[in-house]
Design a protein that fits this description.
The structure holds two protein chains of two kinds. By secondary structure, chain A is mainly alpha-helical. Chain A is 72% helix and 0% strand. In chain A, α2 packs parallel to α4, α4 packs across α8 and α8 crosses α9. The chains are: A mainly alpha, B mainly alpha.
Chain lengths: 165, 215
């Protein structure tokens, strides 16, 4: 079971990386959240019965963990050394050859609240309304309403940021 | 504009695809760590509370059964008996909540259910019921009333006035010690330092939960 779990985490590590980037400002916090999400996934893994897809199940647990976690806890030094040596979460910042829009997107998303962040991420991941509803517990109709509102908000923020630049 | 941003999001996807795989050793080390989640912290605190109450309960029973104060009348046992009952009630309530929390599985729920469960748990954690609050007050009162156990003996040995005065003095000392401890933040340290923090977090989570329900 452990081997299967390790393969699954590596296959879907992008989901966890993205959530860490959305919800944490600094690297240490991102690593803490990543570790907590992996731990919660492991605890829930025996109960996973493929009723939903692996990715939907992972989104649900990872988002729950990040939104309901204790934010002010400090990582223990023993954990820090291992995590720092072996592990790096790719950040949103674009490299020299990459699109500047990624940075623009990051700045805009940073200004959303935690629920809006979750919804916009699921939208960008091209999840269906049904999946978004399954992950968040919002009705399908409400998902549409909320997403439209968030898109307008994002556009406003992006336009404002472009104007400033 | 947003569709262009979807393209930008895909750029990030590619960056992730190119990233190094996580080593088996790292993932195994992660699943061996203690959880830092809010729910785990609350569960741990309740469990510690049960252990703490059990310790004081056993100590109370030892006093009753080994009778180190040489009590001779049933009434003399009254304060320590009340103390034991209070500690038993508080410990029992904590144990009951610990069992209830074992069945709560926040991670598997959808976000809305998770937020509701967590806010309910935190609400309960922040505000023990009126009954438990009263039990806690009685428990502290027994510390002040404990010298009354010796009143009858003191009156017999030292006379009415001296017996009452000495008992009152002992009770005052206990009372003053509790007041000093309270002023110095001894109770706040355990119950209220994190209280404000939890209240703030509870409010934040409530707002998020409302945000999800909002049409």
């Amino acid at each position: 079971m452990k081997d299967e779990f390790i393969v699954m985490i590596n296959e879907h590590r992008g989901i966890l990386y993205k959530i860490c980037n959305l919800y944490c400002d600094d690297e240490e916090d991102r690593k803490d959240l990543f570790q907590e999400m992996v731990l919660q996934l492991w605890k829930s893994y025996p109960g996973f019965r493929s009723q939903s897809s692996k990715s939907t199940w992972m989104y649900r647990i990872a988002l729950n963990t990040s939104i309901t976690r204790l934010r002010k806890e400090k990582r223990e030094p023993s954990r820090r050394s291992l995590m720092d040596a072996d592990f790096e979460i790719p950040d949103f910042n674009p490299g020299p050859d990459q699109h500047e829009e990624l940075a623009l997107l990051r700045n805009a998303i940073d200004q959303l609240n935690e629920i809006e962040k979750a919804l916009v991420m699921l939208y960008l991941e091209e999840k269906s309304y049904e999946e978004i509803s399954d992950i968040t517990g919002i009705t399908k109709t409400n998902v549409g309403v909320k997403l439209n509102r968030i898109k307008l908000k994002l556009e406003k923020i992006i336009n404002k940021n472009c104007h400033v630049r | 504009m947003l569709d262009e941003l979807k393209t930008a999001w895909k750029t990030y996807d590619k960056k992730i695809e190119r990233s190094r795989l996580l080593s088996d050793r790292l993932i195994v080390s992660m699943i061996r760590e203690k959880s830092q989640s809010r729910l785990t912290r609350v569960k741990r605190n309740y469990l510690m509370g049960v252990g703490y109450m059990l310790f004081w309960f056993v100590l109370g029973l030892i006093v009753i059964f080994s009778n180190p104060f040489d009590f001779k009348r049933t009434t003399e046992y009254l304060p320590i008996a009340v103390y034991c009952i209070c500690v038993f009630v508080l410990g029992g309530a904590m144990l009951k909540t610990t069992f209830q929390l074992r069945n709560v599985k926040v991670a598997d729920s959808n976000l809305q259910e998770a937020l509701l469960s967590i806010t309910e748990i935190l609400k309960k954690y922040n505000r023990p019921g009126k009954f438990l609050g009263l039990t806690l007050k009685i428990l502290l009162s027994t510390a002040v009333l404990f010298p009354l156990s010796f009143l009858q003996r003191k009156i017999e040995n030292e006379g009415l006035t001296r017996g009452i005065l000495e008992t009152l003095l002992a009770m005052s000392i206990s009372g003053v010690l509790i007041i000093i401890a309270h002023k110095a933040g001894a109770f706040r340290e355990k119950n209220s330092t994190k209280f404000d923090e939890y209240q703030r977090e509870l409010q934040e989570l409530r707002t998020l939960s409302e945000e999800l329900n909002e049409e």
